[in-house]
Amino acid sequence: QVQLVESGGGLVQAGGSLRLSCAASGSIFSINGMGWYRQAPGKQQRELVAAITRGGTTTYTDSVKGRFTISRDNAKNTVYLQMNSLKPEDTAVYYCWGGSWGQGTQVTVSS
Predict the structure, then answer these.
(1) Interval 12-62: pLDDT, tens
(2) C-alpha angle 78/86/31, rounded to 5°?
(3) 107/7 Cα distance (integer angstroms)
(4) Contact present, 109 and 52 (Cβ < 8 Å)
(5) Exposed/middle/buried for 45, CB within 10 Å: 0-12, 13-18, 19+?
(6) How far apart are the C-alpha atoms of 31 and 27, rounded to whole Å?
């Protein structure tokens, strides 16, 4: 299993943008499905936000469709999550998944 390290979180005002990165310690080419999950304050379960296959097929949870874009660069062993038009309800710790979990990165959206 590769180790995953997320970055790019922070504090942003509603309507703003952030780009999260998930850097892997090794090749992600063999990992078909990779995704971003989030865990909102006070919630025990992580929610799948977006996923992408090796071939580039993407899926999104309904609440982020049209605002978030997931992508992967197999040459750089990195998965990205571009988040636009952020809302306070997007506030959460965002985790990368690719056979293992990263440590998470905090995203806070102020109203």
Answers:
(1) 999 999 999 999 998 888 888 999 999 999 999 999 999 999 999 999 999
(2) 20
(3) 10
(4) no
(5) exposed
(6) 8
| CB-based contacts of 17, cutoff 8 Å, min separation 6 | 82, 83, 84, 85, 86
- State the DSSP string of 30-53: T---EEEEEE-TT--SPEEEEEE-
Q: Is the sign of the CA dihedral 93, 85, 73, 46 positive or negative?
A: positive
Residues 6+ apart with CB under 8 A from 89: 40, 63, 109
Pair 64, 51: CB distance under 8 Å: no
Q: Which two tokens stand for residue 40?
A: 């909102």
Q: φ and ψ at 68, to 5 degrees?
A: -110, 150
* Both structure tokens of 10: 């922070």
Contact, 37 vs 46, CB < 8 A?
A: yes
First to last CA, the chain: 39
